[in-house]
Specification:
293 residues, alpha/beta, 11 strands
């Protein structure tokens, strides 16, 4: 299942794609349960559900995109037509809801060495974390989520599909999909992560209008990517680095993984990618900075 999951995360966007729209500022509060009124009449100008409140220590405002037609969840892919050389490295911290026994038996779905490398190289990064990962590695979730070098975004709780078919992932219905996102934010809060942002990445990158409608009450901005690193199950860090370096453009969003057992060479690839992109004049930013441009 993790093989399908990681292949999906790095396989490329699926479903109707929407370009980056007008950004606005919103509180980075973790969305609370949707109310009946928010489901029936989503407000494009609302910054967060009434039940949500900023987490202590969290940044006051982060940019989000204005909802699309009929209030659909907006989708951010890449900041286009830019002259400034900025790039956002994003890392999916994947763990599905049924992988607890595998973790208990010693399989590692984390990658603390990668996080330390990003710190050492001073690379601001966005980690798209599943709620199940935050539960399994709560100390690491707190460490990442209290480090100003990082921001934590939502990658669902269970890493199940929001649109089917999607790389063999089990599918969620509309009601379960919304609850899954809220459960992930709750897991971040419980772990003590404060640098959370109202961004969401679909498992496998798979979505359609029904999925965008289901997420509308959560008031998140969905974040896709334009550069696939190919790090899932890769054995050659040079090949991963070459693929990223060949694809990056000003304003790019790169998808990589923070899962040691299934993406074992990501840390090594990063040590090649970062100095080369800096040599080319690129500056690394979090998704929130990229979206705010």
């Amino acid at each position: 299942m993790l093989g399908a999951a990681l292949t999906g995360c790095g396989g490329g966007p699926s479903g109707p794609q929407q370009g980056a729209g007008q950004a606005r500022l919103a509180s980075p509060a973790a969305p609370g349960p949707a109310t009946a009124s928010s489901q029936s009449s989503p407000s494009p100008s609302a910054s967060a559900p009434a039940s949500a409140s900023p987490l202590p220590g969290a940044p006051a405002k982060v940019p989000v995109l204005t909802p699309g037609a009929n209030g659909l969840t907006p989708v951010f892919e890449r900041t286009r037509q830019r002259s400034e050389k900025t790039v956002a490295l994003t890392f999916d911290a994947d763990m599905t809801s049924d992988q607890g026994p595998r973790a208990a038996s010693g399989e590692r779905f984390d990658n603390p060495g990668l996080i330390e490398t990003l710190r050492r190289l001073k690379v601001p990064s966005t980690v798209f974390m599943t709620g199940r990962w935050a539960e399994e590695y709560s100390d690491q979730a707190k460490s990442i989520g209290t480090d100003p070098n990082f921001e934590i975004a939502n990658h669902s709780y269970s890493h199940h599909a929001f649109k089917s078919p999607c790389y063999g992932l089990p599918a969620l219905d509309e009601e379960a999909a919304r609850a899954d996102v809220e459960r992930a934010f709750a897991a971040f809060r419980k772990a003590g992560a404060v640098n959370t942002v109202p961004y969401f990445r679909f498992p496998g990158g798979c979505y359609d209008d029904q999925a965008l409608k289901a997420l509308a009450p959560a008031k998140v901005t969905a974040v896709q990517w334009d550069v696939v690193s190919g790090d899932a199950f890769a054995k050659d860090p040079d090949a991963v680095a070459e693929q990223v370096l060949a694809g990056v453009k000003p304003g790019s969003v790169v998808v990589m993984h923070c899962t040691r057992s299934a993406a074992p060479v990501t840390e090594q690839a990063i040590q090649k990618i970062v100095p080369e992109l800096r040599k080319r004049g690129f500056r690394f930013v979090k998704v929130s900075e990229l979206m705010g441009k």
